């Protein structure tokens, strides 16, 4: 819910007051940033110092209010090339000190202007370190941002925050995914066809496949097994996406059919959680999640450590110390986060299927994990041999 925005001419120093209210009663007072109005979501923090356009437009952030730990945001403005989808998905945006003058050769407008244009309510001028420490200690929780010159009293705001929906149990993929299938053509010679189930896919993901000669058929979240096989795929991909993986019964059942047939399979983030569930593992909510572009992950199949991009609030509950027997053969944890031992990847030992909890498409983020797209290609090559 958003009301009319502040005029640019008034300048940020004159922006309306804004209040951020956490569900446990902690309150931060600052100034309106982006659109003025009211918004609710799950408060999460991202440690990425760059790549705010990619963060804002990542559909996995649907219903989340993102707190930027980097103190200055908006320095390079907003361009038309970096968005990961057609719109901003975050439910709200929290910045300590927005750039007053964006500067970059690609910049078309300021971030403040873009947030207002898309009706995204934000707050600035608050102590984002204190807020981040609070979330780290107490865990991700519901939050409201209220801005404008006539704000409700604190008790009313808190009641509204506590009435907002929780992230646990939220089934959101269909709210962000495409409703029509579309094709991302291979760049150069076409070598493979992949059916990509869109649960909130980022634009860079099909692009990384297209760069490897893959024609990607992006299908709606509601795609059936018949829809997947109608494109005669060499491989099937399950994307990232918002919400609680425990609600993803439909994609889990489609994935089980793919595993049954032995078609090469790759999953990213939500796709990794769906593979976990398809194999019979549980998923659980992390206390405050991983969001940023500098998370150390070890590939246990090679021993190599990579610096990676993350955006997840849930994780797979699978044993790190042994191979598990699943209905689809043996499975193991292939990748682990070195900060906290969270499962960051799964692979099957008897079928051509694997997934990672983080973002090898690297938008934004380091390119250390790009090899995973090559692994997917190798699985498809292996199937043909
Ligand atoms: N980026 C994603 O795919 C996120 C997956 C899931 N919604 C989570 O929060 O863990």
Automatic annotation (TrEMBL):
Pfam families cross-referenced by the UniProt entry: CPSase_sm_chain, GATase
Alphabetized GO MF terms: ATP binding; carbamoyl-phosphate synthase (glutamine-hydrolyzing) activity
PROSITE patterns reported in the protein's UniProt record: GATASE_TYPE_1
Metabolic or biological pathway, per its Swiss-Prot or TrEMBL entry: Amino-acid biosynthesis; L-arginine biosynthesis; carbamoyl phosphate from bicarbonate: step 1/1; Pyrimidine metabolism; UMP biosynthesis via de novo pathway; (S)-dihydroorotate from bicarbonate: step 1/3
Region (CPSase), start-end ranges: 1-190
Active-site positions on this chain: 269, 359, 361
EC category: ligase
Domain Carbamoyl-phosphate synthase small subunit N-terminal: 16-146
Residues the record lists as binding L-glutamine: 60, 241, 243, 270, 273, 311, 313-314
Gene Ontology biological-process annotations: 'de novo' pyrimidine nucleobase biosynthetic process; 'de novo' UMP biosynthetic process; glutamine metabolic process; L-arginine biosynthetic process
This protein's record includes keyword DNA damage: no
EC number: 6.3.5.5
Catalytic activity from the UniProt record: L-glutamine + H2O = L-glutamate + NH4(+); hydrogencarbonate + L-glutamine + 2 ATP + H2O = carbamoyl phosphate + L-glutamate + 2 ADP + phosphate + 2 H(+)
Keywords: Amino-acid biosynthesis, Arginine biosynthesis, ATP-binding, Glutamine amidotransferase, Ligase, Nucleotide-binding, Pyrimidine biosynthesis
Keyword flag rRNA-binding: no
SMART domains: CPSase_sm_chain
InterPro entries hit by this protein: Anth_synth/Amidotransfase, CarbamoylP_synth_ssu, CarbamoylP_synth_ssu_N, CarbP_synth_ssu_N_sf, Class_I_gatase-like, CPSase_GATase1, GATASE
NCBIfam families on file: CPSaseIIsmall, PRK12838.1
Entry similarity comment: Belongs to the CarA family.
Assembly and oligomerization: Composed of two chains; the small (or glutamine) chain promotes the hydrolysis of glutamine to ammonia, which is used by the large (or ammonia) chain to synthesize carbamoyl phosphate. Tetramer of heterodimers (alpha,beta)4.
Primary role: Small subunit of the glutamine-dependent carbamoyl phosphate synthetase (CPSase). CPSase catalyzes the formation of carbamoyl phosphate from the ammonia moiety of glutamine, carbonate, and phosphate donated by ATP, constituting the first step of 2 biosynthetic pathways, one leading to arginine and/or urea and the other to pyrimidine nucleotides. The small subunit (glutamine amidotransferase) binds and cleaves glutamine to supply the large subunit with the substrate ammonia.
Name of the protein in its database record: Carbamoyl phosphate synthase small chain
Organism: Streptomyces nodosus
Gene name as annotated: carA
């Amino acid at each position: 819910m958003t009301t009319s925005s502040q005029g640019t001419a008034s300048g940020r120093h004159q922006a309306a007051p804004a209040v951020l209210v956490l569900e446990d009663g902690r309150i931060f007072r600052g100034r309106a940033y982006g659109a003025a109005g009211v918004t609710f979501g799950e408060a999460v923090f991202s440690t990425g110092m760059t790549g705010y356009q990619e963060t804002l437009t990542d559909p996995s952030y649907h219903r989340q209010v993102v707190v930027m730990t980097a103190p200055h945001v908006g320095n390079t403005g907003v361009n038309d090339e970096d968005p990961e989808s057609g719109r901003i998905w975050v439910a709200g945006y929290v910045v300590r000190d927005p750039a007053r003058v964006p500067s970059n050769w690609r910049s078309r407008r300021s971030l403040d202007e873009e947030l207002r244009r898309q009706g995204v309510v934000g707050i600035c001028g608050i102590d984002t370190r204190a807020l981040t420490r609070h979330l780290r200690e107490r865990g991700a929780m519901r939050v409201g941002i209220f801005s404008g010159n006539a704000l409700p009293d604190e008790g009313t705001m808190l009641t509204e925050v506590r009435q907002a929906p929780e992230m646990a149990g939220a089934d959101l993929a269909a709210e962000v995914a495409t409703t029509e299938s579309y094709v991302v053509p291979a760049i150069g010679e076409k070598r493979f066809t992949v059916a990509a189930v869109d649960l909130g896919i980022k634009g860079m993901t099909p692009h990384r496949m297209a760069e490897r000669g893959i024609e990607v058929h992006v299908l709606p979240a509601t795609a059936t097994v018949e829809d997947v096989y109608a494109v005669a795929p060499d491989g099937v991909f399950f994307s990232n996406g918002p919400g609680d993986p425990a609600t993803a019964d439909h994609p889990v059942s489609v994935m089980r059919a793919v595993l049954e047939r032995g078609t090469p399979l790759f999953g990213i983030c939500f796709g990794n959680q769906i593979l976990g569930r398809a194999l019979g593992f549980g998923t659980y909510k992390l206390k405050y999640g991983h969001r940023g572009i500098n998370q150390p992950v070890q590939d246990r199949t090679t021993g190599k450590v990579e610096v990676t991009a993350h955006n997840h609030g849930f994780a797979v509950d699978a044993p790190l110390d042994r191979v598990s027997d699943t209905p689809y053969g043996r499975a193991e944890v292939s990748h682990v986060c070195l900060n906290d031992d969270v499962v960051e990847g799964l692979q099957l030992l008897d079928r051509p299927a694997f997934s990672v909890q983080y973002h090898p498409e690297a938008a934004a983020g380091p390119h250390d994990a790009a090899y995973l797209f090559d692994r997917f290609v190798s699985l498809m090559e292996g199937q043909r041999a």
